[in-house]
Amino acid sequence: MTARIIDGKAFAAILRESVAEHVSHLKQTHEITPGLAVVLVGDDPASQVYVRSKGKQTVEVGMHSYEYKLPADTSEADLLALIEQLNLDPSVHGILVQLPLPQHIDEALVINAIDPAKDVDGFHISNAGLLATGQQAMVPCTPLGCLMMLREYCGNLAGLNAVVIGRSNIVGKPMAQLLLRESCTVTVVHSRTRNLPDILSGADIVVAAVGRPLFVQAEWIKKGATVIDVGINRIDQGDGTTRLVGDVDYDAAKEVAGAITPVPGGVGPMTIACLLANTVTACCRAHSLPEPK
Ligand code: NDP
């Protein structure tokens, strides 16, 4: 039987709608409009597309969007000064610095300069620590979106075997923390892991965040498993055109999995929707108001 396809696009639309409702409530009842500041340094084309899309969706749900586009040769000191200004600005509830930053800027220094309460990407060391110790944190958007979809498709996750492929700070590690928080039995595998296919064969949940096109083979997946494909890889089709594929061999895997996210249209749309949700959460926390559920 073919897997259920997890429609991240539809899911993200529902989440955006609920964000928009909460924004409207904040405006009408409290005269507060959540604001998200996005900072882009340089002219990386993919980053420009992401930033444009974030700004557009921020406005669509009724929030204020502040975009800062800085030249590639912006100094680290100037970027830190802008972040300090945004930290102090009460109309800005969320700050996102688009990664990657140019080589001459220390990424960790910049991320950790953001007020943790406004760190809607959840990359600040305080938020990573809060998440790891089971306390209230800003949770990174991509793993948060994955978790929302998993909850919807698997229901209660307690006791399930989850394997996360990848251990990056932005996807793999926070994903593992979130699954642990849900009482899954979590295994994290990476490039030095031995017998990865054996480990995957026992997984009820697979989250692939590898960055290698079609890496996960259908034969490695347990029948009926739920597969979340975070990967976004552009491959050459050999005829001068390219196409986006995930980290999972989707066509074969959907014949084995119980449910699976497609690429595109799976995790990607949920990431921006979660960014909007995190901004509303940050705004509510800043004003000691009830947060969206
Ligand atoms: P990183 O490159 O930071 O991490 C990749 C991870 O995969 C590393 O932990 C690496 O192991 C592991 N890995 C690499 N090769 C292998 C292998 N052969 N076997 C097992 N593990 C391996 O990537 P990110 O976490 O930033 O992103 C992963 C993917 O997700 C990318 O395709 C990225 O584009 C996509 N992405 C998508 C988002 C979305 O919104 N949908 C958001 C963010 C990322 P090691 O640590 O040992 O090197």
TrEMBL record:
UniProt pathway annotation: One-carbon metabolism; tetrahydrofolate interconversion
A GO MF term: methylenetetrahydrofolate dehydrogenase (NADP+) activity
KW NADP (keyword) present: yes
Domain Tetrahydrofolate dehydrogenase/cyclohydrolase NAD(P)-binding: start-end pairs: 140-285
Catalysed conversion reaction: (6R)-5,10-methenyltetrahydrofolate + H2O = (6R)-10-formyltetrahydrofolate + H(+); (6R)-5,10-methylene-5,6,7,8-tetrahydrofolate + NADP(+) = (6R)-5,10-methenyltetrahydrofolate + NADPH
Gene3D superfamilies in the record: Leucine Dehydrogenase, chain A, domain 1 (3.40.50.10860), NAD(P)-binding Rossmann-like Domain (3.40.50.720)
Residues annotated for NADP(+) binding in this entry: G166, R167, S168, I232
Domain Tetrahydrofolate dehydrogenase/cyclohydrolase catalytic: 6-121
UniProt KW Nucleus keyword: no
Pfam families: THF_DHG_CYH, THF_DHG_CYH_C
UniProt record similarity statement: Belongs to the tetrahydrofolate dehydrogenase/cyclohydrolase family.
Assembly notes: Homodimer.
Database matches in HAMAP family: THF_DHG_CYH (MF_01576)
NCBIfam families, alphabetized: PRK10792.1, PRK14186.1, PRK14188.1
Protein name: Bifunctional protein FolD
Source lineage: Bacteria, Pseudomonadati, Pseudomonadota, Gammaproteobacteria, Oceanospirillales
